[in-house]
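Re: that chain you flagged

S.,

Sorry for the slow reply, it's been a week of failed gels. I finally had a moment to sit down with the sequence you sent. For the record, here it is as I used it:
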Amino acid sequence: MTASASAAGRTEGSDRLPADRLPADRLPPARMALDARTWKEIAHLLLNLPVALLGFTYVFTVVLVSGVLTLTVIGLPLLAVCLLGARQLGKLERSRSRALLGVRVDEPSPLPLVRGGGMFQRLWLALKDPVGWRTLLYDLIRLPWGILTFCTVLTSLFVLWPVLPFIARGLTNVDRAMVRGLLSPSDELERRIAELESDRGVVVDTAAADLRRIERDLHDGAQARLVNLAMGLGLAKEKLLEDPDSAATMVEEAHGEVKLALQELRDLARGIHPAVLTDRGLDAALSAVASRCTVPVKVTADLPARPAAAIEGIAYFTVSELLQNISKHSQARSASIDVWRAEDRLLIQVRDDGVGGARLESGSGMRGLAERLGAVDGLFVVDSPVGGPTVVTAELPWRDRRE
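Prediction finished late last night. Pasting the structure tokens below so you have them in one place:
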């Protein structure tokens, strides 16, 4: 066999590749024969009319009833519910297109969960849902198209039988374009918007919780000591002339209270943002917090530069929380902290040789860390089989520090 004949044979063979070996969404060319794929396309086109009637009726009812009732208190909530229902119609259409047309599109992201939001915030998120509105538009324009495709295919079955596969392919290509254009996610933008809506709630809740903690610590700690100090000094002042020895004792006690109040204020300031982190960076700050852990901790940091202050702060408080968990729950004999940069990510790995069994679902601390990292495009992974060891990996985006 000559080289040209061999090449021709390969070319002919490539035209006969089975459909299941073609790339996703790439269809074999239409042929004169009515094969299984063509019959699926015909079935889809014939179903267009009843499905379009259902969708158009739903849209007309939504617009009419919601429009009339917008002057009442139930108008907007009803529209929000109808948009959620439109999402389900879109899901059914994607399933039908996937089964009969071979269209592979991702399911849109669900509406973001509102943590701590009120009824009006949830209502607003539902009313501005782009997935629901695009599905309503899809169902609105499908009725004339459904009538056209139903009549065309029905006529072709009796009149244009030989060219029906080509007609069906052309019409279903329009269907495929509609599904991809109106019922598929808007690339990553829509998913990103949903994630940011959810993450914003996490950031707000975290900030509010931190403020409450600071207020509680000030009220129960340093403030209470300063009140006692003022009372003690007042009593000492009254006894200064009558009983100098008692006054001296009270002043000495007040001096001790001052030292304790200053220590509590330093601890509180360290909890807000430690000075060593600001002055010397993450390596020194992690070494300082590791020295206060009840378990011996080895710190290894390989950072060519300092990341942004916000990223440093999140990394520091993440490690601090994990070391507190190790001290309280792990029963470990040793632990280690590794911090390094990999391309545009800051990676942190904290491990201990304790009893294991840590889970994200087991407490609010771990969930809070995962949510805090997720709010800045980070990751938080816990690997803690029963019996240990426990390895927690945190990943944060690297952002250059602006001095």
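What I noticed first: The chain has three domains: 27-186, 202-272, 275-397.

Talk soon,
D.
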